[in-house]
Amino acid sequence: MHNIELGSLRTNPRGTGVVWATMDINRLAILVGGITIGAVAGAALQFSSVSAAVPDVRHASVAASAPVALPTPSPSPSPSCPPRTLAIAFTGNVTDPSVLGLHLPWGRPGDPEGLMVEDYGAYNGTTIRKHLPVHDVTTGSLVELFGHNAIDIALDSGTPLYTVTSGTAYQITNWTIPGFPQGWAAVVVSDVLKDDQGDSIAFLYGHVREFDIQNGQHVDGGALIAKSGGDPDDPGAGFSDMANVHFEVIESPQPLLAHAGTVNPHQFLENLYAYAATNPARCL
Predict the structure, then answer these.
(1) Which of 96, 161, 189, 197 could disulfide-link 202, Cβ–Cβ 3.0 to 4.6 Å?
(2) Count H helices, E strands: the chain?
(3) CA angle 212–273–163, rounded 5-degree value
(4) DSSP secondary structure letter of residue 131
(5) Cα–Cα dist 159/3, whole Å
(6) Burial of residue 81, with CB atoms counted within 10 A of its CB: 0-12 exposed, 13-18 middle, 19 or more buried
């Protein structure tokens, strides 16, 4: 802020001298008087010029007292998120997983992933798994195997399940192994995560006992989608003998079809929970 001050412009029109009786002295007096008058006129002209060049003092005072807006300081840059790997097959297009807004599918940051009761691909050659084809794309092409196309995590019945990313949610009420009780599953087709072929990646939560979304509803990442089940007494348990969630990662142009290709979610879940336990939520 600048304060404007105008100094007083002063002239001294007064002539000092004694009027003498002689003609020469009178002429001198006239000459001096003329010089003095000229000085006064010059000073007046100079003051007029200054007045024209400088704003009216009253307005200048108002301008000087007006507040001057100070620039808003820029926010401090957020610390960068430690790098990590998404660990989902065929997602080389994802260079920075933090832009996906990922969320834990159950529990809270710091919680363990949970006890895995059956891994992806598990099959001992004699159990019911012979009825469960695995449409596996982990190797790069669709391969029909027999085994487990997901990871089963032991959770108490009624545990809240959350969307990993934003997307469109669906209810499946005929999710089952042919010839066995029908089960329920919730599926979220992501709108931010695609594989290298441009197909949306979907996440399936099997053995749910309760849906918390409408069929076809768009959901944000971290939204409550369902409650886990799997206990034989739970509705929607399907083929299950204990409370758990069956978690699939699907890569397919038609992720809701029964023969959609799946990829192993084991390392993805392990990385996600370990990262959430030691880094800010914004970095997920």
Answers:
(1) 189
(2) 3, 13
(3) 20
(4) G
(5) 69
(6) middle
Cβ neighbours of 61 (radius 10 Å) = 13
Distance CA(221)–CA(164), nearest Å, equals 6
End-to-end Cα separation, the chain, in angstroms = 47
Measured distance CA(209)–CA(226) in Å, rounded: 8
**Residue 242 identity (one-letter amino acid):** M
> How far apart, in whole angstroms, are the C-alpha atoms of residue 133 and residue 139?
16
* pTM for the full predicted model: 0.67
Structure tokens at 60: 């200048």
Question: Residue written as tokens 């959430």?
Answer: 276
What does pLDDT average to in each consecutive run of 10 residues of the chain (284 residues)? 38 40 40 40 37 40 48 51 86 90 92 81 50 54 64 94 97 81 93 91 95 97 96 91 92 80 86 90 81
